[in-house]
Write a structure and sequence with these properties.
binds 2-oxoglutaric acid, binds fe (ii) ion, 18 strands, 369 residues, eight-stranded mixed sheet, four-stranded antiparallel sheet, alpha+beta, globular
Amino acid sequence: MGKPASDEEELGVDPAFVLPPEHRPNQLPPPNYNNTFNSLLSAAATQDIPVIDLSQNHTALQHHLLDQIRNACQDWGFFQIINHTLPLHLYDDVHVQAKKFFALPLQEKKKVQRTAACPLGFNDTELTKNVRDWKEVFEFVPRGSLELPLDLEGSGSKQVKVFENVWPHNFPEFRIACERWAAALRGLAFKLLELISQSLGLPATYFHDFFIKDTTFMKLNYYPRCPAPDLVLGVSRHKDSGGLSILMQDEVGGLEVKRNDGEWIRVVPRRDAFVVNIGCMIQVWTNDKYQSVEHRVVVNQHKERFSVPYFFNPGSDTDVEPVPDLVDIDHPPKYWSINWGKYLKQRKDGNFKNLGVENRQIYHYAREY
Ligand SMILES: O=C(O)CCC(=O)C(=O)O
Ligand SMILES: [Fe+2]
């Protein structure tokens, strides 16, 4: 990327991936891989994000569950859920098919490549904060197509552009596995949204209508082994921008969450758990009561890694602003209204090419900004 080849030889990787020193990962001692989830528990960081048991979701224990969710959202912005009742064999199918897809020759994957014109499909040049991520991604929308506004400047035009999923040809089992898993996740996403509403003292279905025509994205993330894991990241530090993120990861580990004291904490992979985190739109709705927390992905020299996030997002035409019930004289609204469709479009454009400026963030809509 404009640098002499010698830089690459010296660094071990293309300089486009190399982070400024202050954003490079801290190296954990090399884990003792023998391919089981348990062996990794001992090698990972000493504190884990809260693990919440969803089987408590019945009258006798619901109070307790809501307390746990409130505490996790306030203290971490992240938690893991167990006893979620989703059939894991559907995830295993996705994992198997994802492995097959990413093992295809690059020219095959590029046939379904994401372009400047369409934010769906395969991508191996994603940027986070304008540095290349050490990963390959396949992205699709569970609804089949995505409608985004054309006008970002506020001319009042309601014109939209419709993007369709792009699936690899002659690979129907890949599409079937992805669509089945996405369909199974939608119910869980609404359930989590209800619990979050209740944990805020709002009616369970308070946010439902915003998500009826959801713009949910799913990603299959593939992080290849990396010769220089101390210089690059699979995904640089970022906050998820939408509603809720619900992620399955394999046993390798690498996801790190920024604790409120600024320390990066490794999320311990659990076969039976989803990682759930609050996105920026929930931060705006809750007027900062629940915040979207920075996280990043560390890669490693020994093992490739897969993860499958489900980004549960509101409908494109949703105007997101602090919920009136969460605002009062002591807690005045911190944000102006954000049109989710326009915000999403701007962020997608920024992830695709280096626009030379910081990507759109919610603090650009903060009232005192
Ligand atoms: O791979 C992971 O564990 C997290 C990925 C992530 O943060 C993202 O895709 O936004
Ligand atoms: Fe993320």
